[in-house]
Specification:
KMD1-4; 4 helices; F-box domain-containing protein; Neuraminidase; mainly beta; four-stranded antiparallel beta sheet; about 35% strand; F-box-like_dom_sf; Kelch-typ_b-propeller
């Protein structure tokens, strides 16, 4: 038998172009096995060019990757959970309606760092920062999850310790800005991370400090929405700062957000880049709101009141109609802290 490593064709007996298109149509869940067929398949499926080819031809799948509260053990009488809250990563596919749980980060097998940030890049999940769940100390860890291999790898640490910062993907780069340092001082610094090169590069700082801000990508712009200065604890700004990908310059936008309102995980983008809060859109999601844009739909979760059950919805971007997601199992019914869209 001839080894598949020595075969000149991607699929024996088929032209190269046809073989490439066959692999393009593989669902991402099959990639873990497909990369084991031969070295050529592995190199192709893990290449940047192949990922963007799948994306251009419409064979990637949009999914919401969510930092979700895990079901905890209860006291013997069942009255309340035991121990600190534990979070994991849940993947929801709106087209198929399927829910799945990503394997834990090896360094944190019992739960993610508290308040860590999640974003995506080229079909991968990136988890950054947060607090060590055992001692509540801020960490600078960076972890990348490859859906192709379904494995985690550790990236280069963030250059600065920061918590409650803005993060997002812009043209294949991860941008982080604002937040606060280990001494609770608000930050105005910003960095970009290249996940493939595993390198950090310092960017120009914003015009002012912004703690507990929210990162939003609109077209070729990275928005850092609201936040507050060190001396104005909890007094959220109504302004935002915008960085254009080509120039790298920050531009301040006044009255971009409702002053005094926390923007964390709930910023929506309307017509003409008008920002709004999803918490103001429906009485079922007044508290603990998380939103993730998914193309024609937006995934939204939240509760009607403090301590109430979490509701899950897909909102039609054209009509604004809230569609309840039914049939969710108990293990996926927990509070959603934050999330991002991943084109897998």
């Amino acid at each position: 038998m001839v080894s598949t490593e020595l075969l000149p064709d991607l699929i024996p007996g088929l032209p190269e172009e046809t073989g490439n298109e066959c692999l393009t149509r593989f669902h991402y869940s099959t990639h873990r096995l497909a990369v084991r067929v031969c070295r050529r398949w592995q190199e192709l499926l893990q290449s940047k060019e192949f990922y963007y080819h799948r994306k251009r031809t419409g064979y990637t799948q949009k999914a919401a990757c969510l930092i979700q509260l895990l079901k905890c053990d209860s006291d013997p009488d069942g009255s309340k959970p035991v121990g600190p809250p534990r979070y994991g990563i849940t993947v929801f596919e709106p087209v198929s309606g399927t829910w799945a749980r990503v394997d834990p980060v090896p360094k944190y097998p019992d739960g993610l760092p508290l308040f860590c940030q999640i974003t995506s890049c080229e079909g991968k999940i990136l988890v950054m920062g947060g607090w060590d769940p055992t001692n509540y100390e801020a960490v600078r860890d960076v972890f990348i999850y490859e859906f192709t291999t379904q494995r985690w790898r550790q990236g280069k640490q963030m250059p600065e310790t920061r918590s409650f910062f803005a993060a997002g993907e812009l043209d294949g780069r991860i941008i982080v800005a604002g937040g606060h340092d280990e001494h609770k001082n608000a930050l105005r610094t910003a960095w970009e991370y290249d996940a493939r090169m595993d390198e950090w590069k310092e960017l120009k700082p914003m015009s002012e400090e912004r703690d507990e801000c929210q990162g939003v990508v609109i077209g070729s712009e990275f928005w850092v929405v609201s936040g507050y200065k060190t001396d104005n604890q909890g007094q959220f700004e109504g302004s935002a700062e915008v960085m254009e990908s080509e120039t790298g310059q920050w531009v301040r936008v006044e009255e971009a957000w409702k002053a005094s309102q926390c923007p964390r995980s709930c910023v929506g983008v309307g017509k003409e880049k008008k920002l709004f809060s999803w918490a103001d859109c429906d009485s079922a999601i007044r508290v603990g709101v998380c939103s993730v844009p998914l193309g024609e739909w937006t995934f939204v979760s939240g509760s009607a009141h403090q301590g109430g059950p979490t509701g899950f919805f897909l909102v039609d971007q054209q009509t604004g109609k809230f569609n309840t997601i039914d049939g969710i199992s108990q293990q996926f019914s927990g509070f959603i802290q934050s999330g991002c869209c991943v084109d897998i």
